[in-house]
Amino acid sequence: EKDGYDWFMRKEIFEQPRAVADALLGRHDGDGLLQLDEVRISEDELREVDKIVIIGCGTANYAGLVAKYAIEHWTRIPCEVELAHEFRYRDPILTRNTLVVAISQSGETADTLMAIRYARQQKARVLAVCNTNGSTIPRESDAVIYTHAGPEIGVASTKGFLTQLIACYLLGLYLAQVRGTKFGDEIAAVVDELAKMPDHVQCLLDSAEQVYELARTYAGTRSVLFLGRHAGFPVALEGALKLKELAYIHAEGFAAGELKHGPIALIEEGLPVFCVMPPRGRDQLHDKMVSAIQEIRARGARTLVLVEEGDEEVTRYADELIRLPVVPTLLQPVVATVPLQLFACELATAMGHDVDQPRNLAKSVTVE
Ligand code: M6R
């Protein structure tokens, strides 16, 4: 059942090209027009939506953070992202025109389930992004977009996350199509880029050995930091979570702009810091990230830089370079996450941990 892999997690990481392709399958026609028939909320109702609230826990919450950048940019609908367990305890403002998007791989997470029950009582519409057919969260939602990743057995979410990103992009583009906030050809251009994702992910997997070698040199490390900006910020959070869960190493993700507001005090000689470089299209962000990397390097950190092919500006400040395919900024999380998954999986293996069943964790958290 593990198909020759040592862990389900590793198998699931390697299934991602197929999972991403399946998540896209049948959801757009040849002209890039989106067909999300499964969204059983009428187009009229979708045109009335004036706020989106995305809820989820753990990795699903990070998928939501990425989704916010894309959905707001494409639809201009204000979008909030909230941890499901915080949501209903703060008296959130919900109306009939609020679309609550509940992201859950398992569809059984109690915190998320309680949150959608609350949202429906307040008359909001609830759309689930879920991987598990017939699970409780989609059953109790008004509509569902299934992520079609196939069963995810490793406790650490991998293909679940990548396909949640895809489903959220599709939702954002669909809303833009229905509401007319983007022209058809603009939507088709993004769909084209999405269609290339399975190949991009495959390329990264083909060079897994480079990341594995790197990971093995870090067994015994006490702390690792992750920096990103814009859509790369949730990637930093996800990279840190994988490392905490699997390697039991202290790991933290930061928005790089926040460094000077405190975290830079943590930087010391030899501290490994992963840096997710924004694509060059985002000039300002790109330059700012280059200076952040310079700053931490000057203070002795070891910089492990994820950067797109052809971007040479940062090479001299990088102790290690991990190359990423060239993709649009909003879609970069799909590719940038993969090396971080490989790193955590391999480091935990090198440290002798049970990667599929990390201590103290359950695959689906069915208690609040
Ligand atoms: O099944 P769900 O997507 O609702 O699960 C949410 C989180 O519990 C889950 O993503 C958790 O953070 C993973 N172990 C992360 O790898």
How would you portray this structure in words?
- The protein has 368 residues and is of the alpha/beta class.
- It is built from 14 helices and ten strands.
- Helix 4 links the parallel strand 1 and strand 2.
- The longest helix is centred in the middle third of the chain and has 21 residues, at 159-179.
- The radius of gyration is 20 Å and the shape is globular.
- It starts with 7 loop residues before the first helix and ends in an 18-residue tail after the last helix.
- The model has no long low-confidence stretch (mean pLDDT 94).
- Residues 57-60, 104-106, 109, 112, 155-157, 241, 245, 364-365 line the site of 5-amino-5-deoxy-1-O-phosphono-D-mannitol.
- 5-amino-5-deoxy-1-O-phosphono-D-mannitol (M6R) is lined by residues 57-60, 104-106, 109, 112, 155-157, 241, 245, 364-365.
- Keywords: Aminotransferase, Cytoplasm, Glutamine amidotransferase, Repeat, Transferase.
- Its main location: cytoplasm.
- GO terms for molecular function: carbohydrate derivative binding; glutamine-fructose-6-phosphate transaminase (isomerizing) activity.
- It catalyses: D-fructose 6-phosphate + L-glutamine = D-glucosamine 6-phosphate + L-glutamate.
- The active site is at residue 363.
